């Protein structure tokens, strides 16, 4: 039995926590294409976003400033759980027999159990500052809805959540956690909105999608001047808030004695977790201080980067949002009800899509059974049951570690474990019982949804 005592986690003092968010846009070789008004196809202005977001967030969405100060009230809330720890996965490395060094930034220490409060808190803060009384939103697996309900409770805002039907049915305790924080939760599609009723007319037992849930939340917010909409991923200001993950990880990797990772892998649905980890490292790569391979990992059943088309499309299923240029499967694409509900989105962040088009990052798609195999191995070695979403990144990390085993290279691998899976045990039950399936998304099925992408 090995009696060696090793350092497992690298922590920062609260005084070392970054006080600015990093905006990658000014450092890119070319700016991302603008959002377009759905009617005129002209670049969308602040007035087009004003019914949904407070002006502070709109300005962050289009900012060309490299760094944006984090408000003191937000920093104070962040300190309840930040800085989050960086772990060295010693026991996973040993189980794989790899010379690779695997690090993971663990965001499951937040009150909501994921990375989502990193943006929920500032979004609630800016809305409160603007005099908003209530926020509406969508949620897939429930992590974002939980985070926003928590943030709204802190800033005395009402919170109304439309949860994707498949996840609402499968994860009742996530719904209860949202309600515990004070949020009101509806199964989406619902009979409360015109958008929801239209989809229920097609199928009374519709499994829903993030695109449909967004449509419902946007519809309600747009009709009342005291209500605004909050988005948990995709948009620039959301990814901006998440960069505190990567900024902390840079400092912690240095504490671990590493000059930088060789490979960064992150699960990618709408893109906020991946962007939050990767963007500060991509800044360093573009500056020539390190040279990591940066790889987005998406579900094989919802492969927007690897099989989607790069085009202007709606961010929701009812066509209520501005048109955004992104990798998309078509806003009418309804993903299979996989267990990683947070990755079931038809499109990819326009900013990540642009960076992918520039060739600055890579992307792969992984089937869910391979992901859960990696999640189970991680739980049995590192002691944390990961949410289904980050098991995609863990599967990619295992792939990379096994390649290092073959070559003998001491590859340094970094990933973000963006949340725990305590409310996802039914998914693990399905995997352990051998009834979990890998859905095959045919080219014909994709073609049907892509045919509905608007012509711009």
Structure characterization notes:
Helices cover 41% and strands 16% of the residues. With 456 residues, the chain is α/β, with parallel strands linked by helices. The protein folds into 2 domains: 44-53 and 115-236, Rossmann fold (3-Layer(aba) Sandwich); 71-113 and 240-450, Rossmann fold. α11 crosses α13. The chain is globular, with a radius of gyration of 20 Å.
Describe what is shown at a glance.
The protein has helices spanning 46-49, 55-61, 72-78, 90-96, 117-129, 143-154, 165-170, 172-180, 194-202, 210-222, 236-242, 244-255, 272-287, 304-307, 350-357, 368-382, 388-407, 425-432, 443-450, and strands spanning 9-10, 20-22, 67-69, 86-88, 101-106, 134-139, 158-164, 184-188, 227-229, 263-267, 293-299, 309-314, 323-328, 362-366, 412-417.
